[in-house]
Design goal:
The complex is a heterodimer of chains A (about 140) and B (about 230).
Chain A (H helix, E strand, L loop, with lengths): L1 H8 L2 H4 L4 H23 L6 H20 L7 H25 L24 H4 L8
Helix pairs in contact in A: 3-4
Chain B lengths: L1 H9 L20 H36 L1 H8 L4 H26 L3 H32 L18 H35 L8 H25 L2
Helix pairs in contact in B: 2-3, 2-6, 2-7, 4-5, 4-7, 5-6, 6-7
Classes of the chains: A mainly alpha (about 140), B mainly alpha (about 230).
Chain lengths: ~140, ~230
């Protein structure tokens, strides 16, 4: 009976309690990933640099959220709250970049390189018009 | 079995009944429910924090998209060594605060206090290193907006925007480090006073969650600012 009572009072994270070993492993993994991102950041991987750096940062963040912040064994509603926040971050980024990447060249800010446009092969407004100094 | 269950629940409704946790507010059924509510509230707050920083990350993304070469060149003027050291400091402090919660749950307040002290000292170290970096930027004139007069970046379009984004993101982050430090000092004080044990540790847990968020933001800021 006493056993049952304790089990009932304990919240579910205690049922999944792991020893300090798990924290040490995650900490080591985070340090290894930090070194990895610094080393690969030095290399010239061309277009792969940014996706790689973001992938490593996402893995590190996921480890922190799941194990240091215990979202792995938290109540489901907490997971939902955090994931919804991340979904809205994605909506924000996709909405803004959906706009920026489909703009007419004339809508570029002054001095922005023309290659930043998706339709880079179109005649560039950047070249056509004189450089206006008031941008900065 | 059911009678013991009932008494465990009823314990929450009056402080005079034995077995009731003094930290249980009367409007909650049990400590489990109260912890659940506290945790949910914290995660909601952390969700808004993520969205707050998302706005700055968005600004960063847009300017980096348009002025990629400028951002690349400007990024090389930041100290990668200091940035890397600060990353390691924050990751380690995130680890120690997670261990502090573990120690509190095991009833080892002394170890928890030690780990919290280490975490707070890490926060101080982080701010000192950040201060050295800021000082360097001030000397060079690599400042945001109209105060920008960094000669080495002359000729790059929108060079001041990199430093505007740099100071806004790291500044807001540093502010979070200071707030996190204050929260952890309060948690440390209560830990030393012996307020926490395996039945009551929510302040340690939520203070820790806030500190982990500070770490999370830096995990993304570091490659985006220092490793372009």
């Amino acid at each position: 009976m006493a056993d049952h009572k304790e089990k009932h009072q304990g919240t579910n994270e205690e049922a999944h309690e792991h020893g300090p070993g798990r924290y040490v492993v995650i900490w080591m993994a985070l340090l290894v990933f930090t070194v990895t991102t610094v080393v690969t950041g030095h290399m010239d991987l061309g277009a792969a640099n940014l996706p790689l750096a973001m992938a490593i940062a996402t893995i590190k963040a996921t480890l922190v959220v799941l194990f240091f912040m215990h979202l792995w064994d938290a109540e489901g509603i907490n997971r939902l709250v955090f994931v919804v926040a991340l979904v809205f971050v994605m909506v924000l980024l996709l909405g803004v970049f959906g706009d920026l990447l489909t703009r007419m060249p004339e809508a570029l800010p002054t001095g922005a390189p023309a290659h930043t446009l998706e339709g880079g092969d179109m005649p560039s407004a950047h070249e056509a018009r004189p450089h206006e100094p008031h941008g900065e | 079995m059911s009678s013991s269950d009932a008494s465990a629940h009823a314990g929450g409704h009056g402080s005079d009944e034995h077995g009731g946790n003094p930290h249980l507010a009367h409007h909650f059924d049990s400590m489990a429910t109260q912890n659940h509510a506290s945790r949910l509230g914290m995660w909601l707050f952390l969700g808004t924090e993520v969205l707050l920083f998302a706005g700055l990350f968005l600004g960063y993304s847009v300017y980096r998209h348009f002025y990629h070469d400028t951002f690349r060149a400007a990024s090389h003027h930041l100290s990668l060594t200091l940035g890397t050291v600060n990353t390691i400091v924050l990751i380690t402090s995130s680890f120690t605060v997670a261990m502090a919660l573990y120690a509190v749950k095991k009833g080892n307040s002394k170890a928890a206090a030690g780990l919290l002290v280490f975490t707070i000292l890490s926060a101080v170290a982080f701010l000192c290193i950040k201060g050295v970096e800021y000082h360097e930027k001030f000397q060079e004139g690599a400042l945001p907006g109209k105060w920008f007069h960094f000669h080495e970046m002359q000729g790059f379009p929108a060079a001041n925007m990199f430093y505007t984004v740099y100071f806004l993101t790291t500044g807001l982050h540093a502010f979070h480090v200071i707030v996190g430090m204050a929260v952890l000092i309060w948690v440390l004080r209560r830990t030393i006073r012996g307020d926490f044990d395996k039945n009551y540790y929510i302040p340690v847990e939520l203070g820790g969650l806030y500190w982990h968020l500070v770490d999370l933001v830096w995990i993304f800021l570091f490659p985006l600012l220092y490793l372009i």
